[in-house]
Design a protein that fits this description.
Distance between the termini: 129 Å
Largest sheet: none
Structural class: mainly alpha
Number of helices: 1
Radius of gyration: 39 Å
Order of helices and strands: H
Length: about 100
């Protein structure tokens, strides 16, 4: 009985070991493919990174230009509002001077 239990345990360990070997064999066959894909992705990153940086510089320029123009328009609109306010405040009581 004791030898029978040991035999069963050894069989279970052997089965587990065989499954691990098959898994490792599958992984070893997949590794070159994964390595090639990683190399390809790295090459693409090297290719696109300078373009992304270039676009980032362009977007930064456009953003700064837009903000400058927006501020100019807001300043212009404020100037118009102030002129209209002065004209309406001074125009209503100025008719008696002439």
């Amino acid at each position: 009985r004791n030898l029978s239990e040991i035999g069963q345990r050894l069989d279970a360990l052997q089965d587990c070991r065989d499954q691990q070997r098959m898994s490792l064999r599958q992984l070893s066959h997949q590794m070159p493919e994964v390595s090639n894909k990683l190399d390809q992705l790295w090459s693409q990153c090297q290719y696109y990174f300078p373009r992304v940086k270039e676009h980032d510089v362009h977007f930064s320029f456009f953003r700064t230009s837009f903000e400058t123009h927006k501020q100019s328009m807001l300043d212009y609109a404020d100037g118009l509002d102030q002129r209209e306010h002065r004209a309406s405040a001074g125009g209503g009581g100025g008719t008696g001077k002439h």
